Amino acid sequence: MTASARPDARRNASPYLYGPEAAAIARVLQDGQYGHTGITEEFERRVADFLGVPDAVAVASGTAALHTALLAAGIGPGHEVIVPSMTFCATVQAILAVGASPCFVDIDPATLCVSDQLVMSAVTDKTAAVMPVLFGGQPVDLSAVREELDERGIVVIEDAAHAFGSRQGARRIGAGRMATTCFSFGPIKNLTCGQGGMVIPRTPAEADALRRIRLLGMVQSQGERANTTTYRVNTFGLRYQLSGLNAAIGLVQLEAFQAAEATRRNLWRTYRDALAPLDGVTLVDVDVDQAVPHLCQVRIRQRDTVFADLRSRDIGVGVHYPPNHTQPAFTAWHRSLPATEQAGQEILSLPFHQHLTPTDIDRVASSSNRPSSPPEVRDAQAPDCVPWKLLP
Ligand SMILES: *Cc1c(COP(=O)(O)O)cnc(C)c1O
User: Fold this and answer.
1) N or C: which end of the chain has fewer CB within 10 A?
2) Which CATH number is 257-387 given?
3) Model-level pTM?
4) DSSP string computed for 173-219
5) CB 340 near ligand 1, within 6 Å
6) Given ligand 1 and candidates 12, 63, 68, 238, which is best to mutate, with the most ligand atoms within 8 Å of its CB?
7) Domain 3-255 classified CATH 3.30.1360.120?
8) Residue 189 known to be catalytic
């Protein structure tokens, strides 16, 4: 009989609270500042300062960040958006939400990210945007093809949901001026607001557009509205602002972020050392001097067997992600992506969050080496694609 895993190793991911979050929420509740308020604006300023950028626009989720950024860039029906299939489905849904078509591209098997060549090989006359995904927290450098993209009027909107705090050279992700950057502050991200997101715009005009779209297309700020008898709606917009309750959590988390960075890097290095002697287990390498790691992923041949075995030992493994081009809802945009498909069979995410201890990690690593149960047989599923129609 095997001992059960410590509770923390049973979870693949888990939010980490530093303590003052509860009191911060209680203060917001007492003040009644639940909506988009001064607290949200303070969180925007603090994030901008932390990243070393002039402005940051808070929104309700990472998905809302991607959607708002695409809307502000004018991406819509008739446009193609180049996106890796190896991402969370949210990236693809944001593209569909504006009525554009995802153009799935393959990944570099070493990083699980797109490369400049892979992106350029997918460009067509309809390409309006590229959405690189900063997988696991790693930067994606498209600077070599920047001029070509600019000449074609193709914008770059980074899905940096995994990459809050990561660096690209001397700068934090978001501070490079080539891309609009979208962060998620969902429950299991490097920094959490409970739910939340942030867009880092490249220009003041873009910031202005993002602010209007996230607040139902209304022109005035909340403060101005209080002093006038009416408001004006001059663009399409959604209820996408970040609530004061969520921003209050984010402020506490940002204050403690140095600890988060150090812990995540140390845990990742502990995994690296513990996994190094294992045969047939290949760590997806991350430059943790630059990146704040978001996942600890390995590649394993008999992934499904190992997955079932670790789950039976109460170890919270996961798969990030089943490729999107094989999802029933996205079959219309299917194309052959060999590196993605192979990765889809081999990747396994080990428990990775700030509650883990080095002992948990040793236990996970030693268990990863000795599958004992037969492979799980999974039913081949017929695509159950729901027909649906976008905007007229
Ligand atoms: C989490 C995540 C998102 C979406 O963020 P939410 O805050 O959950 O809406 C988008 N892309 C990737 C790669 C993510 O991991």
Assistant:
1) N
2) 3.90.1150.10
3) 0.93
4) TT-SSSSEEEEE--TTSSS--SS-EEEE-SSHHHHHHHHHHTBTTB-
5) no
6) 63
7) no
8) yes
